[in-house]
Amino acid sequence: MDSVEEEIYQVRKLEISDKNKGFIELLQQLTVCDSVSDEAFLERFQEIAKYGDDHVICVIQDDNSNSGRIVATGSLFIEKKFIRNCGKVGHIEDVVVDSSVRGKQLGKKIIDFLSDHARAMGCYKVILDCSLENRPFYEKCGFKQKEIQMVKYFI
Amino acid sequence: MDSVEEEIYQVRKLEISDKNKGFIELLQQLTVCDSVSDEAFLERFQEIAKYGDDHVICVIQDDNSNSGRIVATGSLFIEKKFIRNCGKVGHIEDVVVDSSVRGKQLGKKIIDFLSDHARAMGCYKVILDCSLENRPFYEKCGFKQKEIQMVKYFI
């Protein structure tokens, strides 16, 4: 990526207007994500905003094209614990890069942004769950495999 | 476990007075957990309490003995997402049962309590990370292995 592209692909926090820039459609590349009404989006946005720096969603907007679409995102929330001397842990979730811009290291930019935030907030570690297939990517971001993830679905 | 023991080992939410009933010492069986001052405990307790039903720590007190000590605990916090139709996910953390009372299914009681809470709060799933060694226990609680956990330590 040259320096011009570096300038174009900046990470910033999610804004309400990003809903109309393809944010939801981007999440649909990750998992089941039905279309969300403007009201539902705003309500959830405000619920998350209440947590302040303890729950951050970041995005990259593609200013390289006329579309100005959101092409990468990831979220981080901070869990407060009693262990580790009343320590804090950052949880990274819902990382996705638009299939049209893969290979430009936007995923790494997202992970670095969220990890830096977690560290700045005083977390002693940051964790995430991923498929075995995505392990090499996260290793490049400085992560190591530790445990296994278990899940119980209600619906 | 007979019905008398069933009555004795009830799950309830963490209270401030549990600090003097061995709550921190119990967490020390799980991981690094230095002794915590009363002030630091109260501050963290209040920070977590602000989240209301979105962050619950539960405990089991041993009323079977004169000690009245806390012998099991686990925590759950609820993450608000945009995916899955603005869905919610329950994250289970820091589950530990005192080594002296293992085999009484207290761990399952803790997991069931936290899972039931997540379901009641509208989560579409509940997730946790554990060692491969603990997988059979969580399978008995209705969980299935899904992904892998990656971690990056800052300290």
From TrEMBL, chains A, B:
Coiled coil: none annotated. It catalyses: D-glucosamine 6-phosphate + acetyl-CoA = N-acetyl-D-glucosamine 6-phosphate + CoA + H(+). PROSITE patterns: GNAT. Signal peptide: none annotated. SUPFAM superfamilies: Acyl-CoA N-acyltransferases (Nat). GO terms for molecular function: glucosamine 6-phosphate N-acetyltransferase activity. GO terms for biological process: N-acetylglucosamine metabolic process; UDP-N-acetylglucosamine biosynthetic process. GO terms for cellular component: endoplasmic reticulum membrane. Gene3D superfamilies: 3.40.630.30. It is found in: Endoplasmic reticulum membrane. Pathway: Nucleotide-sugar biosynthesis; UDP-N-acetyl-alpha-D-glucosamine biosynthesis; N-acetyl-alpha-D-glucosamine 1-phosphate from alpha-D-glucosamine 6-phosphate (route I): step 1/2. CDD domains: NAT_SF (cd04301). It is a peripheral membrane protein. Pfam families: Acetyltransf_1. Its EC number is 2.3.1.4. Keywords: Acyltransferase, Endoplasmic reticulum, Membrane, Transferase. The keyword Lipid metabolism does not apply. Residues 9-155 form the N-acetyltransferase domain. Its main location: endoplasmic reticulum. Belongs to the acetyltransferase family. GNA1 subfamily. Homodimer. This is Glucosamine 6-phosphate N-acetyltransferase. It comes from Penstemon smallii.
